[in-house]
Design goal:
By secondary structure, the chain is of the alpha+beta class. It is built from seven helices and 14 strands. A hairpin with a 7-residue loop joins strand 9 and strand 10. Helix 3 crosses helix 6, helix 4 crosses helix 7 and helix 6 packs antiparallel against helix 7. This is Protein VACUOLELESS GAMETOPHYTES.
Length: 251
């Protein structure tokens, strides 16, 4: 039976209810951005991702072989998530090895295979091609991060790059949850920021003509699948932006 309400030790005074959210929220467990359903205290504006609220004491991940990942409510020493490269600011799964691995609860639960719109994407810590957003195989120097890669190997996006794109647009106020007040101009601006490739990749694509247009039409479809996999089924403002990714390529 699915849990829809319970008391959490980090918020003992009130019952947390599983609620849908049409606007982004900051999880009070891992401190990461969240979309869609979450456990929420209506009185205190307290939110927890489902993955953070219902975290298990330990877990495993196939990309971190021979590692038992233990749940911790906090950690020390400037840790970062192996999947997305973001700093660990709260809840985390961490292995016990000397060179410990860390995963945000939501990153631990990332879909390993995404199938949709005729594509199959696999979560991987090794990439055959550069990320279509940052034009690099690494998130930053020395940090590879995880990526979603198409079965053909041509379409690749870092989990970190997709999270950064959505976070940037949230900070700019594009996901306000009020669909009637999201103007076409605002949606188009957010669309450009989310869908645009790196300058180097875009310039290369411009020289390829119609073949490049087909490539980027598929790349945007792939990006939509990845956004949904990372943040859940899009709702509210983000749904408008994500759907625009697809509709804008059909012209």
């Amino acid at each position: 039976m699915k849990i829809t309400e319970f008391e959490h030790p980090n918020h003992p005074d009130h019952i947390l209810m599983l609620k849908s959210s049409d606007v982004p929220y900051k999880c009070d467990g891992c401190k990461e951005l969240g979309f869609g359903p979450c456990f929420k205290c209506e009185d205190c504006n307290f939110h927890l991702h489902e993955e953070c609220a219902l975290a298990s004491k330990s877990s495993y991940h196939p990309l971190l072989k021979r590692c038992e990942l233990r749940f911790c409510e906090e950690t020390y020493g400037g840790r970062y998530c192996d999947a997305c490269g973001k700093d660990v600011m709260g809840f985390v799964y961490q292995c016990t090895h000397d060179n410990a691995h860390d995963l945000h609860p939501c990153c631990l639960k990332l879909q390993r295979i995404i199938i949709g719109d005729g594509f199959e994407l696999r979560l991987s810590d090794k990439v055959p091609s550069k990320c279509l957003k940052c034009n690099s195989k690494e998130i930053s120097r020395g940090i590879k991060g995880w990526s979603y890669v198409s079965s053909c190997g041509e379409y690749c996006y870092h989990v970190a790059c997709v999270k950064d794109l959505v976070l940037e647009n949230w900070r700019n106020g594009y996901f306000n949850g009020d669909n009637d007040n999201i103007s076409a101009q605002t949606s188009n601006l957010a669309l450009l920021q989310i869908a645009s490739p790196s300058n180097e990749v875009a310039q290369r694509g411009d020289r390829l003509g119609s073949k490049a247009k087909k490539f980027w039409r598929i790349a945007k479809m792939v990006l939509k699948l990845i956004i949904s996999a990372i943040f859940g089924d899009p709702t509210g403002g983000i749904a408008i932006i994500v759907e625009a990714l697809v509709s804008s390529t059909s012209a």
